[in-house]
Amino acid sequence: MSEPPAWPSGIADDHTPIEYSVAFNESEPDRLTLRILGEALDTVPSATTNMSAARRFIQAQAGRFGLAVSRFDQVNELFATDDPRGDFGLWHSMVFRPGRRPEFKVYFNPEVKGVHRAPGLVAEALRRLGLEKSYDTALEYAIRPGELGRDDRLTFFAVDLHDQPHARVKLYLSHYNAQARDVVRAARAVAGIEADEIAEFCALAGGGTVTFAGRPLVGSYTFLSGQDRPVGYSVYVPIRSYVRDDEQAYRRVTGLLERYGFDSGQLDRAIDAVARRPLRDGVGLIAHVSLRLGPPRPGVTVYLSAEAYRVDPPRPLLPSLAGEHPELRMAAVRPDPTIARSE
Ligand code: TRP
């Protein structure tokens, strides 16, 4: 850790190749799930060698934990290329629940062969998994007028590495310059969930932000075979782009947790385990907050950065505006590196 990051991982803003998250579950409010999102790095990291390292990692875990890799194998070669583009090659997450073996998830990059190839790649991957109808429904609701690949982008294609009934395929879209109503509409692709909840969630997490002009709102669909529509929807608010510091993010997130009936003391334990500084001394420890609607496990998830390499300083308050609408001006204060994403 005394060296700079060996690879500019996109997992976290400071390039730490892991990120923690704690999931609060409606069905079992006292039992949190711990997840770790990670990027496997080769000893000589590059876009290409890291992809191989990630596949080796998955193979090794599959052997160790007896993971079912059939879904992975069905789509893996679609996302394989000698010349990976975009922000990452292959990520994975590990999901820990009390008293159980860890579960694994793999994230493919739909834009790995270039932005314009993403819709076709994902369509083919979902066709192979028998989910093409759900995909059509999802896009119908998620894409704003205009073209897929501009303001609405396919960000992750994720498969579970197990074959239990709750095994999922998930598709994530990033919505640049979106408003809450855009993700509410996206959520309406799913039947039987309270899509309107999302508006309130975004308003509270964003502190009244109307247009999310900093880091994008992200939405994900959960697909289950045999269905014509996605069965679940989650929205991820990159709260760190819309606060001055983590103290402010913390207040919003604990407010949200309490609104959904969770004990925010559990979040305190997680933060204490990760943070090495007072919350008001930086921004980005609390990276995202998400609301999960529908199966498999509705609830709220809070994403915590490791900040292994760097702490981002709090955003300065604009003196002329200070005190008036402190929640509303945050996004404009610091340029956001993720807006101009490379292809
Ligand atoms: N750091 C990246 C981003 O903020 C990727 C990422 C990590 C992410 N965790 C996430 C994206 C949770 C959405 C939700 O975009």
UniProtKB/TrEMBL annotation:
Keywords: Transferase. The keyword Protein biosynthesis does not apply. Pfam families: Trp_DMAT. One of its GO terms (molecular function) is transferase activity, transferring alkyl or aryl (other than methyl) groups. GO terms for biological process: alkaloid metabolic process. InterPro entries: ABBA, ABBA_NscD-like. This is Prenyltransferase. It comes from Rugosimonospora africana.
